[in-house]
Design brief:
The structure is a homodimer of 320-residue chains.
Chain A lengths: L3 H13 L3 H4 L20 H16 L7 H7 L11 E4 L12 E5 L7 E7 L9 H11 L1 H23 L3 H21 L9 H17 L4 E5 L5 E6 H14 L8 H4 E3 L10 H8 L10 E6 L9 H4 L11
Parallel strand pairs in A: 6-7
Antiparallel strand pairs in A: 1-2, 3-5, 3-7, 4-5
Chain lengths: 320, 320
């Protein structure tokens, strides 16, 4: 328990506990397991703190919205307690206490939505996202303009797109928000680069595919790391996987289930080599992508029994 | 003469000719030679059009500032007619006719200034700079903010820094301007990336070196391509080359003069391996940099005789 953030979270939970006297002499043993690349810009700390806060608040019988407590562990953890699509509201207070997570729709709202994560590198980030964001706040002339003028408008568009299940609108805002986040990182001094050459190949692949289809069928987003998170509808998965396979083929000697994880990732789509070459004009890049996770929008933090846990694979998805 | 921009330039030169009748029946044979990587974001077209306009306006005896004609060939060519440090004024007219080049100081003003160009890739750009800039104008929410709020202020700072030979101020504006240009490219939709992983290694090298020295001793700038242009004072060249050599060593079997071009690039600086490793913590990247040009601020377009030309090496510098 040397981690100061963890201590802050625990103190806050205890403050709101409704069974303080009952537990006041108890010590707490936390055992945390994780099946996701850490410190790679894939919100692993958000997932971890969401679980921790969910478990602790259950133990201490804390009532009401506890996303503000999760936020003290990792900013984005306030989005990870609920399932479905969650908004991180900015809030107005300097203390940040009204900056919380708010569910927009549940995980059942848009069942066709799929997510393909291309894990480019599990290496530790050159600069952590909290430290990076602080440096951007202090030095980027663009950040204030973005916060004042661009984000509020995009938040409205995004909410409307999710509620009405308008995929092209959802996808365009997703890509533009990702681009502008990294634009601010580049405008920071000294500048920050989370995306690498492989990330940019994925950006080009996505735009080339959408242009080929004549409409936006897949979106990318990059967080504080080089890994890509692609959003697409179930109907597009097979064809998009054919394009991904063309540019990022699995390593020759790797077993298929070590490269494709999560939901089945069969590409049955009949797309010819000639089409792939003319649409993409990109050389295959073996080993640029480490592995691929195919998943979908899920529920939030869950309490599971040991028995239930044994039925899940290493991605937290039901064993096939 | 199928090139429409070349025709525009020639027509404009003829309009302003003061010896029209004399030359009206002459055909013009243009022979252009170039010793710089083309379409790599190193302003090769600016150099070419500056030469062409300089030669044509001499032939047609055009008087006065002709940078507006050069700009019709390649925007940045209006900066390349004069030597020293040149400002590209924005102008106010929609036609762009008052957007011209204006010399700030001559090439003798700051004789200590040196330039080291790391040629990362001679490959053709994914998107040309004119086309890219047009797309940014149409789609980047940041570009207008940059043009209105950031550039005018930086232009003032830059002029003052050059006139007073304030290297740290010059260097900081140079790096921030480069970062923000590429930030706008990233904010464009679809986004544009001219820098690659090697470019980012150079950015990290420069910031690490400056931090080690406790003050800004070297600056980077990237144009519409992955190649880095470094600015530094003569006194820093030897030590900076030791750092560059550590991360980007010459290929094993390449002759030294093919890797280091231009001014002598001896690194006599006694910097230990241990220092290099602790300052940079970067692995050597052989073959990431193709070659290195060491040069300085020079004069503008020059008329030279064949005899004089034979005394210059392939970089346009006096043969050693």
């Amino acid at each position: 328990m040397d981690n100061p953030r963890l201590q802050t979270v625990l103190r806050k939970v205890k403050e709101r506990a409704s069974n303080k006297s009952e537990l006041k002499d108890c010590h707490i043993h936390v055992c945390s397991e994780n099946n996701f690349p850490t410190a790679a810009g894939l919100a692993s700390s958000a997932a971890g703190y969401a679980c921790l806060v969910s478990a602790l608040t259950k133990l201490f019988n804390v009532q009401g919205n506890v996303t503000d407590i999760a936020r003290l562990g990792s900013g984005s953890a306030c989005r990870s307690l609920d399932g479905g699509f969650v908004e991180w509201t900015m809030g107005e207070k300097d203390s940040g206490e009204d900056s919380t997570g708010k569910q927009i729709v549940t995980e059942d709202h848009w069942p066709e939505m799929r997510i393909i994560i291309l894990v480019v590198s599990g290496k530790k980030k050159a600069i952590g996202s909290s430290k990076g964001m602080l440096r951007s706040t202090q030095t980027s002339p663009f950040l204030k303009h973005r916060a004042d003028k661009v984000v509020p408008d995009n938040m409205k568009k995004m909410q409307a797109a999710i509620k009405s299940k308008d995929f092209p609108a959802f996808a365009e805002v997703t890509m533009k928000e990702s681009n502008q986040l990294h634009s601010v990182c580049q405008d920071t001094y000294p500048p920050i680069s989370y995306m690498n050459d492989t990330s940019w190949s994925i950006v080009r692949l996505v735009h080339a595919y959408n242009e080929y289809k004549g409409q936006i069928k897949v979106a990318y987003t990059f967080d504080a790391g080089p890994n890509a998170v692609l959003y697409l509808l179930k109907e597009s998965v097979s064809e998009v996987l054919a394009f991904i396979n063309h540019v990022f083929p699995p390593p020759n000697n790797q077993e298929k289930h070590l490269y494709f994880k999560g939901l089945p990732s069969e590409s049955n789509h009949e797309v010819t080599k000639a089409t792939l070459n003319s649409v993409l004009s990109m050389e295959p890049q073996q080993n640029a992508v480490k592995y691929i996770i195919h998943t979908k929008v899920g529920p939030g933090a869950q309490e599971i029994t040991n028995e239930a846990a044994s039925l899940l694979d290493e991605n937290g998805l039901p064993k096939l």
